[in-house]
Amino acid sequence: MPRPIEALIHLDALQHNLGIARTCAPDAQVWSVVKANAYGHGLVRAFEGLRSTDGFALLDIEEAKRLRELDWRGPILLLEGIFEQRDLEWCSRLGLWHVVHNDQQVDWIAQHKTEWPHRVFLKMNTGMNRLGFRPHAFRNAWARLSALPQVEEVSLITHFSDADSPKGIAEQVAIFHQHTADLSGERSLCNSAATLRHAQDPAVRGDWVRPGVMLYGGVPDYPEHDADHWGLQPGMTLRSRLIGIQHLQAGDCVGYGSRFTAPGPMRIGVVACGYADGYPRHAPDGTPVLVDGARCRLVGRVSMDMLIVDLDAAPEAQLGSEVTLWGHGPQRDGAPTRLDIDEVAHACGTISYELMCALAQRVPVTVLDPQAA
User: Fold this and answer.
1) Model pLDDT for residues 15-41, shown as the tens digit of each residue
2) Which CATH number applies to 236-372?
3) Which residues in 61-88 are b (16+ Cβ under 10 Å) and which e?
4) pTM, to two decimals
5) Which residue among the candidates 35, 39, 216, 275 is catalytic per the annotation?
6) For this structure, is 256 an active site residue?
7) Cα–Cα distance measured from residue 198 to residue 170, given in angstroms and rounded to the nearest whole number
8) Overall fold of domain 11-220
9) Active site residue: 39, 256, 279, 353, which one?
């Protein structure tokens, strides 16, 4: 039999979470962000769960090609725009909308020969200081693009740096509106955090929201809020099984570097999952893991193919017992169990985005589609 690790992709959860985005941003259209192979869920797999979206936003033309091959005829937005002038040929051929964030991209469009004018989203740097025109240069860029015959419509976009933190978005929103008040074009401001926390305000909501991690069940403002607070469901479950059990005495050590020392007699389980599967090597002792639905804790250093859990909370566990690294667990005491990926990520000093995106190619993936059942 194959090694007993697998990832499950829950299409009903993706559909549900997209519905949450729509509820948070009434009257706005939704760009479903599927960059990074749909946050590790698989672009082709996630498409089936998100196909009721208004548009898809991503980075790579190859990903856009895949969506067109799946017969998606709606809008596709390149979030970082084009990387060289010949990319515009693909934008024309595939009907791609693209972000414009620097003068070189404007120059390339001006030199481009096409029968099909482009839809572009002009990006303002309102304080994130990654991509985009500074506010004082934004109007000139808008005027240049609007005058080009190669451009059908100019929309306006920015990105929040602190939508998930106490600093908030007020300053960036004010800058954006101050410099776009009399400019035509649709607006897009909200990422996942802003969609969840601020999109009830029409001035923030704009015409398009851009949910990313929330579509997959990740919570951008964890631990202030968790998935239950926002009504989000896990889009991915990573699970495996116990392949070994050891009995320790006080003073026995566990794993490479002997990081963990047993304080007394212990029963530990060996799980077929390691950093080569995408589980973080730096996960500390105490990181939560479910064994047969019971909350247990990781002990010792994660190795390439295995990790170790303390079985004190799951005394009935045996070889073959189900282990949930994150996502939905098995029934226990007649009730479903769940371990949110944000809790695991927080214990590891990182964010759920990183864990999702790190899922290794060697992990088999099963798509759960209740409509196909």
Assistant:
1) 999 999 999 999 999 999 999 999 999
2) 2.40.37.10
3) bebbebbeeeebeebbbbbbbbeeeebb
4) 0.96
5) 35
6) yes
7) 10
8) TIM Barrel (3.20.20)
9) 256
